[in-house]
Amino acid sequence: QVQLAESGGGVVQNGGSLRLSCTASRIMFGFETMGWYRQAPGKQRELVATVASGGNPNYADSVKGRFTISRDNAKNTVLLQMSSLKPDDTAVYYCKLYSDYYAHWGQGTQATVSS
Predict the structure, then answer these.
(1) What 8-state DSSP symbol labels residue 66?
(2) To 10 degrees, the CA torsion angle through 25, 29, 34, 39?
(3) Which of 6, 11, 49, 56 has its CB 3.0 to 4.6 Å from that of 109, i.e. a possible disulfide?
(4) What does the alpha-carbon distance between residue 62 and residue 38 come to, in Å, rounded to a whole number?
(5) How far apart are CA 7 and CA 84, in angstroms?
(6) How far apart are CA 24 and CA 32, in angstroms?
(7) 28, pLDDT greater than 90
(8) Residue 112 neighbours by CB distance under 10 Å
(9) What separation, in Å, do the N-terminal and C-terminal C-alpha atoms of the chain show?
(10) What integer pLDDT is reported at residue 53 of this predicted model?
(11) Which phi and psi (to 5°) does residue 75 adopt?
């Protein structure tokens, strides 16, 4: 069973920064995509950013230019650097590790941006 350990959430003021980290206990094939999704109260879970094993990032339009996703394949880790945070970014952020064959989710970490 693959486990994803997330860290880095917290409370920041409008315009602040947070860095989220997620480490997978193992990666089976080496071509899995890792990424971050978020879910705000009363809303559906949505994609924030993903990065393929080759390093090509993909971002939601709402975070482009503010968030940066990066990946360390040797450590099975994906990072999300979040800058210029807004109250609308307040959500539980979930790490996801997936391929065509399976998907695993982390437990989620809360990020709160105060106005």
Answers:
(1) T
(2) -70
(3) 6
(4) 12
(5) 19
(6) 11
(7) no
(8) 15
(9) 40
(10) 86
(11) -110, 5
pLDDT band at 57 (very low <50, low <70, confident <90, very high): very high
What is the identity of the amino acid at 11?
Answer: V
Residue identified by tokens 């307040």 is 90
Separation of alpha carbons 56 and 35, rounded Å: 11
* Under 8 Å between Cβ of 86 and 78: no
Closest to 76 measured CA to CA, from 51, 109, 102, 46: 51
Whole-number mean pLDDT of the chain? 95
User: Rounded CA gap, 51 and 58, in Å?
Assistant: 6
Residues 6+ apart with CB under 8 A from 88: 40, 62, 113
Q: Give the rounded percent of residues in the chain with a pLDDT score beyond 70.
A: 100
What number of other Cβ atoms are within 10 A of residue 46's Cβ?
A: 12
